[in-house]
């Protein structure tokens, strides 16, 4: 647990009633109390004036404020991520629609090409058939005239 008092001291609980901390203007200090009812004292720096209950309440309030700020920051971050995700999702949908449209166009072009090729082949087949028919007609006419 991290805490800050009005004197800008920060620290954390190391368990079993012992607090380790550092003042912003000095080196780390160890603050211990053998009883939860005794005030804490810093080694050689004077006595902490608040009772443990008041100290604990201010510590709790500071922690609550810090946690509320973290929740607020995380909520803001989550909102930004939602917007980013929405924008990314919309962009992906647009790209996918573009690709589908391109595939549809390619399909239509291929189908048209196949249809044109088929019609060209049919024209050639008709011409060949027409030539054969005309040739056959001429053969029949020639054979009738010669007999």
Automatic annotation (TrEMBL):
Residues 1-49 are annotated as: Disordered. Residues 40-49 have a biased composition (Polar residues). One of its GO terms (cellular component) is cytoplasm. InterPro entries: FLACC1 (IPR026674). Residues 1-36 have a biased composition (Low complexity). This is Putative structural maintenance of chromosomes protein 4.
């Amino acid at each position: 647990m991290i805490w800050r008092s009005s004197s800008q001291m920060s620290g954390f609980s190391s368990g079993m009633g012992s607090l380790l901390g550092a003042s912003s203007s000095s080196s780390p200090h160890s603050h211990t109390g053998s009883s939860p009812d005794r005030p804490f004292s810093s080694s050689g720096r004077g006595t902490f004036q608040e009772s443990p209950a008041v100290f604990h309440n201010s510590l709790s309030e500071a922690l609550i404020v810090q946690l509320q700020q973290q929740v607020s920051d995380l909520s803001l971050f989550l909102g930004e991520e939602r917007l980013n995700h929405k924008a990314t999702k919309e962009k992906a949908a647009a790209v996918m629609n573009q690709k589908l449209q391109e595939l549809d166009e390619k399909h239509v072009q291929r189908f048209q090409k196949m249809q044109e090729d088929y019609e060209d082949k049919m024209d050639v087949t008709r011409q060949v058939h027409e030539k054969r028919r005309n040739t056959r007609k001429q053969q029949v006419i020639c054979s009738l005239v010669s007999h």
